[in-house]
Amino acid sequence: MTTVSSTTSSTAATTGYSALSSSDSGTGIDYSLLIEAKVNARLAKADRIDTKITANEAKITAYTDLQDKLQAVSDAIDGLRNRSVSTGASSNLFGQRTAYVGDDDVFSATVDDDTEVGTYSVVVQQLATKHKIAADGVASKTSALGYSGSFTLQAADGSAVSIAMDSDDSLTDLRDAINANKSTSGVTASIVQVSDSSYQLILTSNNTGQTISMTDGGDGVLSSLGLTDSDGAVKNELVAVQKAIVEVDGVTITRSSNTIDDAIEGVTLTLYSASPDTAISMEVSTDLSSIKSAITGFVDAYNEYRDFVVTQQATTSDGTASSDATLFSDSLLRQIVRSVNSALNTSITTDDGTVLSMASLGISFNSSNELELDEDTLNSILSSDIDSVKQLLGLNMTSSSSQMSLLRYTSSASALSFTLDIVRGDDGTLSSASVGGDSSLFTVSGNRIIGAAGTAYDGIVLVYSGNSGSVDIDFSQGLADKLFGVIDDASATYGSDLATAIDDLETRDTELESRSTDIKTKAETYRSTLTAYYARLEAAAEQAALLLKQLTYTDSSDDS
Fold first, then answer.
1. Closest by alpha carbon to 342, among 464, 479, 519, 235?
2. Which residue, among 286, 278, 258, 257, has the nearest Cα to 270 in the 3D structure?
3. 145: phi then psi, degrees, rounded to nearest 5
4. Would you place residue 15 in the very low, low, confident or very high pLDDT band (cuts 50, 70, 90)?
5. Contact 471, 398 (CB under 8 A)
6. Under DSSP, is residue 92 helix (H, G, I), strand (E, B) or coil?
7. Taking 60 as the threshold, does the pLDDT of residue 289 lie above it?
8. Who's near 207: CB < 8 A, 6+ residues apart?
């Protein structure tokens, strides 16, 4: 009898996932579709989470772009806030000075920050010179001179050094010996080739206005070299030493250098040529070009920010958000836009009742709500009324006492006006400073009056050198200073509204990614479980079909 072999139950354990498709399945059932349907049902939640993560990442990118554009505005106006470094700014353009010189071929000038402005009349009568003397000519710079002995050498601002010579020393050897001590003596030596058969040693003072002096050691070396005559006086003086002579507003000033930094406080003059009896005007003033450049940079930076905002508010033809409007209807963006617009609308009233605003600088909004700058208007107010520009843009403190000064100001208050009642003890030290009888609002340390933490005066440090009494103090915060504060609250790298929002989104994404990964891991485990389960069903079905086939074949054989 013919027999038919059969598979064993181990088939179920080895049946793979590929055998569960309808084309390979013995039963004709497509188990793979069943598995995918069940697994995808579980993965759907992970897909929704991933979609949320993608949306959050897009929002983080948009918030970061907004942060960058706001900080660019902040950087542009930082120097316009009339704050020193101690009061929170990287620079104060209103304190920067420049000098306008009528003829910069004669002299130039650099000016320290916060120097008093003014106009001066300068006459450069004479330049300071370096003393220059020469030895007699010799036929060779490398042949032995034949002189033996020593001499001392120094400039007026140097120290005497001793130069020793042997008979076999050449002019080059002598030059090198002098230059080995030039930093001490203040004298430098060089060799000039006068002709094919003549070389001269030249001695030059290192600095202007300094006379070279020499003393022979007793062997007559100096006179043999031709540096001195028989009487010991300089024999060949090429350039006589002289000091610089300058007249400033009719006052004659004599200095040994052509760089003069102590004639006008805060001003350094560099002299280039003498122009006797020719008065040259020099004006020390605020560096208007730097202020104009900063204002122009602010307009450009604001318009970059404004273009970003417009993109985030754009809609399609059917009124829905455009594809680029990641922050469409975003509450934080709306809040920032309102705060920035409010700061831009800041106005200041001067003592004479003049109202200053952004328009005073020639800045206005166009039809797209971008800023436009009229340079003629800006140039006019910068040249005619720089104090009004400073008052409009910056932080300003006025005090009824000239002995009260501001050291630090970090308060966010837009305006403060108060009267300080100051008491100085018998020993001369400050003992208290109070407002309205409340001495807890300020503490004193030396000559410093410090606003107490948690009060309206927190962050204010004043310096007072006067006597006991009352001092009226007024702070006003101009447009640039107020806008800087608004932007800092919104976009500073740490602790701002945008920084917090970005941190929150990143934290949320980390949590969502963990949840998504967990769901995907469990779904893959579920896939493996289902695959094994259906594989066992398929193996059992195949074995049952084989057994049925075997039984049917047996019955057929018996009938025959």
1. 479
2. 258
3. -80, -30
4. very low
5. no
6. coil
7. yes
8. 130, 155, 157, 186, 256, 257
Domain ranges of the chain: 27-96+287-314+327-394+478-538, 97-127+244-286, 132-239, 395-477
Residue 203, pLDDT above cutoff 60: yes
For residue 26, what pLDDT band results from cuts at 50, 70 and 90?
low
Q: Can you tell me which residue has the tokens 């010799």? A: 138
**What single DSSP character describes residue 89?**
-
Give the mean model confidence (pLDDT) for residues 467-482. Answer: 92
In the structure encoding, which two tokens stand for residue 135, read together? 């030895």
Q: Look up residue 166 and give its amino acid.
A: D
Instruction: Provide the residue count of the chain.
Output: 560
Nearest CA to 522 among 151, 33, 42? Answer: 42
From the options 1.10.3470, 3.10.50, 1.20.1530, 1.20.1330, give the CATH code of 27-96+287-314+327-394+478-538: 1.20.1330
Q: Would you give the distance in Å from CA 487 to the centre of its chain? A: 17
CA-based angle 240:242:243, to the nearest 5?
165
Tokens representing 544 are: 């049952």
How far is 303 from 297, CA to CA, in rounded Å?
10
- 235: DSSP letter: S
CA distance 181 to 163: 9
pLDDT at 131 over 90: yes
Confidence class of residue 2 from pLDDT cuts 50, 70 and 90?
very low
| Pair 452, 443: CB distance under 8 Å | yes
- At 475-498, the pLDDT tens digits run 888 999 999 989 999 999 999 999
Q: Which residue has the higher pLDDT, 8 or 250?
A: 250
Handedness of CA 309, 313, 316, 317 (dihedral sign): negative
Architecture of domain 132-239 in this structure: 2-Layer Sandwich (3.30)
In this predicted structure, what is the pLDDT of residue 558? 58
d(CA 336, CA 343): 11
